Amino acid sequence: MSGFLPENPGVLQMDVIAEIRRRHLVEKETISSLAIAFKLSRPTIRNHLKTVETPAYQRQHQPHPMLGSFHQQLHAWLEQEADLPRKQRRTAQRLYECLQVEG
């Protein structure tokens, strides 16, 4: 009954955290039995029992330090090619090469 996200292994799904809290607070399951059932460590179970609300993190600004002034050019290319068929679009490697030519 692993609740780890496949694209981000180490991050639990929110419904698993809710299930941990429900089983401990409502059904009075012990931390040890929850750790065995969810295949998590006891300190991890304790951490999720301490949380009052679901953790919410949203990045306010996505930095693009490596692209710098080329971000606008790259964005324009991607918008321009969005309507083209997939085979006619530039690949990431090709976009990189075009950016190198630009400077």
Largest sheet: 2 strands, antiparallel
- What helical percentage do the residues reach? 40-55%
Spatial arrangement of strands, main beta sheet:
1-2
Could you state the order of secondary-structure elements as H and E?
Answer: EEHHHHH
The number of distinct helices, counting runs of at least 4 residues, comes to 5
What is the 3D form?
elongated
The overall pLDDT average reads 81
Alpha-carbon distance between the two ends: 51 Å
Pairing-aware structural class of the strands and helices? mainly alpha
Strand content: 5-15%
- Radius of gyration of CA atoms, rounded to a whole number: 23 Å
Q: Tell me the total number of β-strands.
A: 2
**Weakly predicted, low-confidence segments:** none
Would you mind describing this structure in some detail?
The chain is mainly alpha-helical and 103 residues long. Helix content is 50%, strand content 7%. The chain has 5 helices and 2 strands; from the N terminus they run ββααααα. It has a two-stranded antiparallel sheet with strand order 1-2. Helix 2 (31-38) packs across helix 3. It is elongated, with a radius of gyration of 23 Å. The termini are far apart. The mean pLDDT is 81.
